[in-house]
Amino acid sequence: MTEKLTIDTPEQIALELPLAGVGSRFLALAIDTLIQAVVLVALLLIASGVSPAAARLGVSPGWWVPALLLLAAFALFYGYFLLFEALDHGRTPGKRFVGLRVIGDDGRPMAVQQAVVRNLVRVVDSLPAAYGIGIAAALLSPRSQRLGDMAAGTVVVREARLSAAGATAPPARPRGARLGASRLDADEIRVIETFLQRRDGMDPDVRQRAAAAIAARVRQRLALPPGGSDEALLEQVLAERMES
What we know:
Layout lengths: L3 E5 L5 E5 L3 H35 L7 H24 L5 H6 L1 E5 L7 H9 L1 H4 L6 H9 L6 H6 L1 E5 L5 H4 L18 H13 L5 H19 L7 H14 L1
Antiparallel strand pairs: 1-2, 3-4
């Protein structure tokens, strides 16, 4: 049975996000490690050509070539994860391929500070070899968190592929028709956005109840009449807010 993270929103609506298991996380890590290895081999090939070229020019490479290689390897190991997770909304190329994302344990997108803490602790999680400590911590944690996740207040969730409607625009509506989405506050918009992003990973009954509860709140706040598709309404409200 898939473990889930349940988030109670300020509107007292429970959203359930499927947590990533150790297997899928390890697969994502393997892909990221392969990418790192390819980059490292490329750096070694470049370095192997630098020394002979410098010697032909009468310049001794001395100690700085291996020192730069060591620094580059260190930056590659730690900076790779930090850079991608901070800039790509909690996803590395490996996580994107597998369909995973790192978020805050409160359901919010991961902040840069959390990405820094999470990856600073990676040096401990990677011990003694092949992330032994990290895997053990994730297996023992009720939220499948490694030590870096615990320190940073993050979790890794399975990310459903977004449909075009959920990610960008709503169904066509009459020109100039507005719902008044600007009257919704930031927390209400965040709830709508979170639901639309995660709905494909929800159980059908949970998805229907969550959509109905959120849509009822939206109709009340915007003085809209009942009826129609709850999810279509939420898509339209989010798109209108993004346009403003």
